[in-house]
Amino acid sequence: MPHIICVGAIYMDTILEVPEFPQENTKLRAKSMKRRRGGNTGNTLEVLSQLLPDDNFNKDTLTYHTKLSLMSVLPDPNSPDTKAVILSLPDVSPQLFLYRTGQQSAASSYIVSPPNGTRTIVSYNPLDDMTFEEFKAAIVPLITADTMKEEVWIHFEGRIPEVVNACVAWLRSTYGYNQKVAISVELEKPDRWILEKSARCADVVFYSKDWAENWFANAYSGPASTPYSGPAIPDAESFLKTQIAHTQPTAFLICTWGKGGAAAVRKFPRGRPIHDKTIGWRPHLDEPQYSVDAVDTVGAGDTFIAGILYACVHQRTWGAAERLEFANELAGRKVHQRGFEGLGAAMRKSAVWEMKLAESALS
C-alpha cells in the first residue's frame, strides 16, 4: 500500500471578490464572499484524492490501496475549524494531525480578488508551528521494518526552512536513499533560500517561477560571479540546467512558469539528464465549460504538484515528459475553473489522457 504524506500548513481562507482593489481608509462592498479550507498541502491532497481510482477504498477491509495523510498543525480537535478541515478532506487520514489543545481558530487568510486576476493575501496564524521533534515522533512508529516493504512518499511544502531541513536530513540519515521513503520538496518563496539544503537530498524538487527569477537575479551579481551564458530572458529550462550540479544523482527537477508552462529534468547516476518542457495548457474549442481566460489561479501550483505525485506513484511506466504533460494539463484545467471540484473526472475524459488512465485502472 503506497502511503503519500503531505507536510504543511492548513488555512481557513476567506475569499472576497471585489469590483476593484480597495483604497486605504475607504469602504467597498464585496461582490461575493467564500470561506473554504486552504493551504498548499490540503489543496494537493484534495486533488490527489480525485485522481485515485474509484476502488481505492476497500469497503470490505476498510483500507485504502493508496493511503493519503496530512501532517499539519490544527486547533483543538473539537473546534469548528478542525471539524471543517476534516470534512473537506474525507479521503485523507487525520492520524498525523498535530492538535493545539484549547485553540479554537486555525490559521486564517483573507484573499482580496479583484476582476483583473490579482490576489492580495493577509494571513494570521495563532498556532505554534510543527517542530522537528513532533515530526520525528509521528514518523518513527509509522515507518517500521514491516511498512518499509511499501513505498512511503513524504512531500514538504517548505514552510519553515529550518524545520524542513532538519526533517529531510533525519529521513535520509535514518532511511537512506533506498526509494522506499521518497522525498519531494517545494521551493516556492525566494526568501526561504536555505531550503536549498533539502533540495540537495530530495527525489523530486518543485521550483516556482519566483524562486528561479530570484536565483537568476542574485546568482550572477557581484565581481566574483559566473558569467551567465543562457537565454537573454531566463526561463524554466535554463534555470533547471543551473541546478543539475546541486541535486542528487537521480533527482527529478521541475520548474513551473505560469502561462509559460513548465520544464523538467530527469537525472540519472550514469548518462546525461533528460530535459522536457511544455507550454501552458489552454481549453479546447469543444470544452465550452471552461473560460478562455484564467478565472481562479488559487491553488494552481498545488494542483500541479498533485499531478506529479500521482504520476510518480501510480503511473510508473510514464516517462518524465508524460508526467510533466499530465500535471501541466491538470493545473491548466484548474486555472480555467473555480475551485478544485471535478478535476479528476475532467482528466479521465481528456482527449489525451482518457485511454491512458483507463488502461492503468485495469492493470
TrEMBL record:
Q: Does the keyword Translocase apply?
A: no
Q: By what name is this protein known?
A: Carbohydrate kinase PfkB domain-containing protein
What GO MF annotations does this protein's record show? kinase activity
Coiled coil, from the record = none
The family database entries (Gene3D superfamilies) matched by this protein are listed as: 3.40.1190.20
Q: Give the SUPFAM superfamilies listed for this entry.
A: Ribokinase-like
Record-linked InterPro entries: Carboh/pur_kinase_PfkB_CS, Ketohexokinase-related, PfkB_dom, Ribokinase-like
Give the top-rank taxon of the lineage listed in the UniProt record for this protein.
Answer: Eukaryota
Carbohydrate kinase PfkB domain location is 1-339
**What Pfam families does the record point to?**
PfkB
Q: Which UniProt keywords apply?
A: Kinase, Transferase
Give the organism the record lists. Epicoccum nigrum (Soil fungus)
